[in-house]
Amino acid sequence: xxxxxDIFLATPRGFCSGVRRAVNLVEKTLQNYGAxxxxxxxxxxxxxxxxxxxxxxxxxxxxxxxxTDTSRPVVISAxxxxxxxxxxxxxxxxxLIDATCPLVEKVHKKIIRLEQEKKNIVVIGKNGHPEILGTxxxxxxTSEYKIIFSVQDAEKLQFSSDAxxxxxxxxxxxxxxxxxxxTVLQRRFGNIxxxxxxxxxxxTTHRQTAILELVKHSSLIVVIGSKNSSNxxxxxxxxxxxxxxxxxxxxxxxxMPWNEISDEPSIGISAGASAPEELVDNMLKxxxxxxxxxxxxxxxxxxxxx
Length: 306
Prior knowledge:
Cobalt-precorrin-4 Transmethylase, domain 1; 11 helices; 19% strand
């Protein structure tokens, strides 16, 4: 039986700047105002982050109507929120602290501009995802918009007017999936405002590129991240599409499928943008306990200084 000897670590991995900023804002709000602090939706999609904050006195809600004490501050999650939430908070006298990722805010500004330009709007993303709800929630409904998630959706897309088309995208999608959807839309619609590379979050792009590099070194990939994290799901999906023999999405080391790696010479490890680095550290500690003479290799595709 082959024994595990090499670990390949994706870099960058784990917390992106937007997630780190959002979590720090919640921590700072707890320090400044004490508990409880309300957070609208999970601040980021990670079980460990959410549970840790809950223990410190954070109360997670989906709507402001759930708040029992309107004198307490409310933090908007990194995914952003529809503009009616800000209006409602003002009416209720609630202090809002906005942890919306600046790259998501950029998408909000773009969809507002597209509506002002009276364009039909295509939103590429998962219908019902909080980021998408926040993005379309910026509109005044003076423009027609459609949410699509696949090439098949793009092939069936119809608009009732012949107005030019503008595009926005969820920031955490698979870059190649978005490109394939774009190809269909450009073929079907002549008058279209195309996406630029900067419309997809740079951290998402970097982590996806790193996964592609990992697969070149190991056929077994482990992604640390929660099941409701879009960017983590995409990393697992990309690994399989790139030729990985097996790819797993796990919350932490307790979910590690040890029987699946028992005869593997190497594994590649990454973490979604909402997964803290301590989860990777815990994984490495357990691997070192189980296997001697492990060699750890950093696979670096980019350095993030933003």
